[in-house]
Amino acid sequence: MKELENKQGMAVLESISETTDANTNGHRRALVSPRAPSNNTQVLNKDLKAEEKCLTEREAEVGRKYTGFRGYLRIFEVSRVIGKLSLYLYLDQYELHRSAQLKYALGRMQTAERLTRMAVYGEKLYGVRLWFLHQFLLLLRWFFIGGERNKEVNQEKQAVWLKDKLIELGPTFIKIGQSLGTRADLLPLPFVKALGELQDNVPAFPNAIAFARIEKELGRKINEVYAEFEVEPVAAASLGQVYRAKLFTGEEVAVKVQRPNLDATIKGDIEILRKVTKFAERFPRLNENADWAGMLREFDTTIHEEMDYAAEGKNAERFRENFKNWDNIHVPKIYWGATSSKVLTMEFIHGTKVVDLEILQSLNVSPEKVNRLLIKTYLKQLLEDGFFHADPHPGNLLVMPDGRIAFFDFGMVGRITPELQAKMIDAFFHVVSKDPAGIAQDLIDLDFLKPGSNADSVRPVVEKMFEFHLNLKLKDVNFKELTYDLADVMYDYPFRLPSNFTYIMKALMTLEGIGIVTDPEFNFFETAKPFAKEFMLRREGNDFRKIFVNKLMGRDDSGKIDWNRTWKLAKMAFKTVVNTNK
Question: Which position among 4, 117, 126, 380 has the lowest Cβ density within 10 Å, counted as fewest Cβ atoms?
Answer without folding.
Answer: 117
